[in-house]
């Protein structure tokens, strides 16, 4: 039977305690989703800092765990049937951890699927669109003279925020209770501050979103998770 220590990832990021879940990540929105879930559930885990540089994410060691070369990824030594489980893609990891712990994803079939639809809304909409806004507003794309890309992603970001504003009317959380829908979505809204783009998307014009985001950020587990693994080592 293979163990965590047999995995090629250990040639670069060796597990100090191979009996607990191993997190390979960086404190970006997608990475924070998983550290937040681990902190919220209280599962014991060991983190490994995998930067976004090609030297890390495109290394043979990391590609042996995630062939897509993106953080985050995990290895759980106590996966289904007690066997080690390798997993990448933040949404899949959140669903797995929710089902493993019985937390933040309702066992009721209808509520479960309604939660998952908001997870997919983040994965297919908020993440990609907010990320493109960041690129064209604050990073390399900002050097492009053509204003159409940044205008496109600004408008789409605002539209997605409006969807959240409507959903959160009269609600504390995206579902009736705090769930993986909140855990996967809120870190991407935090990125708007990192991009310096809050004023560009009229952040303060959506009181439901602002109040929800503040509730999320006030959670002790989230305060711990936002710098796991530390961005500065």
Number of strands: 4
Average the pLDDT over all residues and give the rounded result: 96
What series of H and E elements makes up the topology?
Answer: EHEHHEEHHHHHH
Tell me the span between the first and last alpha carbons.
35 Å
CATH class identity of the largest domain: Mainly Alpha
GO molecular function: transferase activity
Family: Belongs to the GST superfamily.
Protein name: Glutathione S-transferase
Keywords: Transferase
Could you write a compact summary of the structure shown?
InterPro entries: Glutathione-S-Trfase_C-like, Glutathione-S-Trfase_C_sf, Glutathione_S-Trfase, Glutathione_S-Trfase_N, GST_C, Thioredoxin-like_sf. With 233 residues, the chain is α+β, with helices and mostly antiparallel strands.
Structure description:
It is a single chain. The protein has 233 residues and is α+β, with helices and mostly antiparallel strands. The chain folds into 2 domains: 100 residues, 3-Layer(aba) Sandwich (Glutaredoxin), CATH 3.40.30.10; 113 residues, Glutathione S-transferase Yfyf (Class Pi), Chain A, domain 2. The chain is built from 9 helices and 4 strands. Strands 2-1-3-4 form a 4-stranded mixed sheet, covered by helices on one side. Helix 1 packs across helix 7. The protein is globular. The two termini are 35 Å apart. The model has no long low-confidence stretch (mean pLDDT 96). Keywords: Transferase. One of its GO terms (molecular function) is transferase activity.
Features:
single chain, alpha+beta, Glutathione S-transferase Yfyf (Class Pi), Chain A, domain 2, 2 domains, 4-stranded mixed sheet, globular
